[in-house]
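re the bet — no i am not wrong, look at it urself. input seq straight from the record:
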Amino acid sequence: MSWDISGMDGWKADDFPLGSVIPDSGNSRDYVTGGWRSQRPVRDDAKCTQCLFCWIYCPDSAVNVTGEKVTDFNLDHCKGCGVCAQACPSDAITMVPEGCELPEVG
């Protein structure tokens, strides 16, 4: 599909074609979006101070918390960006290549 963009400089907001539509808000849990991840986070329970910075900073809401404690990562939604590992003040999170065995922790 192509659009006639001649005269685009004079277009008003309603003249621009829609790129995508999200009909329902809050539906991200309905979609698995972590499939293109090349690295995944691994948390060392012994180092974790439960500061929840990883949960606060995760752009994908992929840090699972129960009872105000980090329990694990939701890899269906984690994109492997490493923000959680960078935000962790106790270096309790390591990014490992997808498909590798888990590193020794503790």
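see?? The beta strands are 39-43, 63-66, 69-73, 93-97. told u. also The first strand starts at residue 39 and ends at 43. so pay up
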